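Before we proceed, please read the two lines closing this message. Report back on whether the structure tokens fit the sequence:
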Amino acid sequence: MRKSVWLAVVLTFALTWAAESYVQPRVVTCGGEGSVDAEPDMANVVLGVSLEDPGAAAAYARCNKAMDKVIAAAEKLGVARADIRTVQLDLAPKVEFPETGTSRMKGFVMNHLIRIRVRDLSRVSNVIDEATSAGANRIDGVSFTFKEIDSLKSEARSRALDNARDRAEDLADGAGVKLGKLYSINETSYDMYSDEISAGRALGGVSAMPGTQSVKVSVFVTFEIQ
């Protein structure tokens, strides 16, 4: 019993000493944003095949056969197999709901969409034209991006950090204190704005104009203050 009391006293003393010895650091926290504007040099085209069939197996087989031709057409234009990726693959029953009577199944709908990464923007319309000629009957649009996205993101992050430091210094000056060492940093978001062009605008040999887009990074930094 005495031993337990003695341990409790020691523990209480240790906790009290730790609480009194800990000093909450004086800090200032501020957010910063950075962006880099650049012209996209790569496009992502999403297209594929959508068809119906009374049988599930037949719908699946027909869709796969059609997609093989679409993929082959893209590869003939120089698109690497690594730049072609399935983004949607589903098989679902098609149900008819008449105004009177009970619903009934009419067959199956098969969808297979792929994303084709086009590394030469001048060939976007060619890829779409060849794909539709090969059997693609669904085109979900074109979006633009960058080959060197990591370097753009790094530059935007650097600008965000500079912006956060400048804001923190303004706050410190206003409060009559000076910034100390960096206490913590957190990247809160990364956005790349990429306008998407609808299928109708992308067809018919129309040249897409990606314009200038922005890569943006947001950060939160905390500095100790003196």
In short: The longest helix spans residues 149-175. Residues 196-206 have pLDDT under 50 and may be disordered.
